[in-house]
Amino acid sequence: MSKLSAYDVIRSPVITEKATLASESNQVIFKVAKSATKPEIKAAVEKLFNVKVKAVNTLVRKGKMKTFKGIVARQGEVKKAIVTLEE
Length: 87
Fold this sequence. Notes:
Radius of gyration: 15 Å
Number of helices: 3
Helix content: 25-40%
Largest sheet: 4 strands, antiparallel
Distance between the termini: 25 Å
């Protein structure tokens, strides 16, 4: 990997209903660093969890405007990685 360590690449797991359904087909979803590439994500997951990665798909969710108690704020952009594991 280039300049990011495995813990810098993988920020957190995504725990949603959709992510739970994806886990039935050997997929895991993580929030990752914005600058992380697919080979870096693959290497980080294989190193941290001792598994073989079949494929990595990435997406960037654009920031949204949200209102909370009358205060309008913009959420930041989030990069997610959908990691397919080998069986």
